[in-house]
Amino acid sequence: MTSLSAKDKDTVKAFWGKISPKAGDIGKDALGRMLVVYPQTKTYFSHWKDLSPGSAPVAKHGATIMSGVGDAVSKIDNLTAGLFNLSELHAFTLRVDPANFKILAHNILVVLAIQYPSDFTPEVHVSMDKFLSALALALSEKYR
Amino acid sequence: MVEWTEQERSIINNIFSNLDYDDIGPKALARCLIVYPWTQRYFASFGNLYNADAIKTNPNIAAHGTKVLHGLDRAVKNLDNIKATYAELSVLHSEKLHVDPDNFKLLADCLTIVIAAKLGNAFNPEVQATFQKFLAVVVSALGRQYH
Q: Which residues form the Globin domain (chain B) (predicted)?
């Protein structure tokens, strides 16, 4: 489906280099937003005491997710192989409906727009959107 | 019918009364054409859309972006009757412009991103939820008269 051009990969790697120090914060904000804006996503977290933006479980999990994204950046030349284990985890243990990857991706992009208004240009936006779509696809590989 | 709380009405009115239409409209439309290049299919007569820079500086696109953004004003003024308010525009987009209604969502997403960049942290989760709800209702109304 999505093929990342050399330019896309360079753009993603450069932008990630800029934002990675704040990856945890970005993840926390994106996850917190998703739970508010798309309440159906809360169904995956019924075991958490507090689902409000900025809460401890949201912060911790947001950071976990973004470190996965960072890992994917380093494996950008072969996402399917690189995310094999994570795909198995999502397919067999977590069983997150893949439609939700798109929802989370959107919220990550919103947070990037908020925190990096001048750096998150349309050109960076399209490469990041393509990358997150490719990531989601690799994550869905083992589902069926 | 769509229900709006006082809070939601206030958020929506706040966003639009402080909006620089000539800035946000062009940026949102340009972003849509760059991030989702297939949407350029509707703008063949608008001149040079060859690359991102051309799109961003194209005066026809800029003017159209402003126009489209002002198109949202009637929804803001008629929150309780968006469906009827957009019936005519829906027919226009279907019968005359032949726009695939899936594309409305793409533009809505780009507008959300541009507004988020403008408002920064003021675009908190609650504001985002309200704004996206508003756009979803408009998008639905615009697709209503397609057959």
A: 3-147
Of the listed ranges A1-10, B7-16, B86-95, B125-134, the least confidently predicted one is A1-10
- B13 Cα to chain A: minimum distance (Å): 19
Residue-wise pLDDT for A76-107, tens only, equals: 999 999 999 999 999 999 999 999 999 999 99
- Tell me the two tokens of residue B59: 């005066």
Q: What contacts A27, CB < 8 A, 6 or more positions away?
A: A61, A62, A63, A64, A65, A66, A69, A108
Task: Evaluate whether the domain defined by A6-140 bears CATH number 3.40.605.10.
Answer: no
This complex has an ipTM of: 0.87
Contacts of A81 (CB under 8 A, 6+ apart): A75
**CB-nearest partner of B116 from A36, A110, A126:** A110
Question: Nearest chain A Cα to B30, which residue?
Answer: A122
Domain that holds residue B96: 6-143
Tell me which residue in A53, A123, A125 faces B125 most closely, judged by beta carbons.
A53
